[in-house]
Specification:
Blueprint (H helix, E strand, L loop, with lengths): L10 E6 L5 H14 L6 E5 L5 E3 L2 E3 L15 E4 L5 H4 L3 H24 L4 E5 L12 H8 L2 E7 L12 H15 L2 E4 L9
Parallel strand pairs: 1-7, 1-8, 2-5, 2-6, 6-7
Antiparallel strand pairs: 3-4
Helix pairs in contact: 3-4
Length: 194
């Protein structure tokens, strides 16, 4: 399906619903880069919330939950985030979680900006822009030669309190699609992560 060597020097965005294989594909790419000898050039910002079950489906999941060894890369920064639409019990709480996530993810991006590397990988990038725009993501992208990120897109999680998070997340993800070189849409029928 892909050769990691062909993604060096590219900006790549992986999108899909919950459970579509975004994190798995991201990990396959990371392991491909490590096999090519680029481990010391990889910085990973892991914005995904810890995995939880929602409506019978696994939601979230940090790379280390998939047995990823952070010692294989230059920098691994796990960010403590909360899935706002799933855990928020009212509109204000959902927005509070979303704003808290943006601040925490923003702090992690600033750490990368202060000590950049050639390869930047972000797991669950849309946790940063449930509220707001691409912001610091664009600054970070300018500092790396290869950018790999995954984002929730067009899935089943609903915005039951009409916070606007889902609309914003979709619009900003579409803006990110416009500035990357490659988009893997795992919602497309027939696309499977092996």
């Amino acid at each position: 399906m892909f050769d990691a060597a062909n993604l060096i020097g590219k900006r790549v965005l992986i999108v899909g619903d919950v459970g579509s294989g975004k994190t798995l594909l991201t990990l396959k790419i990371v392991y491909g880069f490590i096999e090519l000898g680029f481990g010391g050039s990889i910085s990973i910002l892991d914005f995904a919330p810890s995995s939880t079950l929602h409506c019978g489906r696994r939601v979230g999941g940090k790379l280390i939950e998939y047995s990823f060894n952070p010692n294989l890369v230059k920098m691994y920064i796990p960010v403590e985030t909360i899935p706002p639409r799933i855990l928020g019990k009212c509109r204000d709480e959902v927005l509070m979680y979303a704003n808290m996530n943006r601040g925490r993810c923003g702090d992690a991006i600033k750490l990368f900006i202060g000590d950049p590397s050639d390869i930047l990988v972000i797991n669950d990038v849309s946790l940063y822009y449930h509220v707001g725009d691409l912001g610091l993501i664009v600054d970070a992208m300018k500092l790396c030669k290869t950018f790999i990120a995954n984002a929730y897109f067009d899935g089943f999680i609903e915005d039951k309190f009409s916070t606007g998070i889902s609309i914003n997340e979709r619009e900003v993800t579409m803006n990110l699609m416009k500035i990357v070189d490659v988009v893997f849409n795992l919602n497309v029928q027939g696309f499977r992560v092996m």
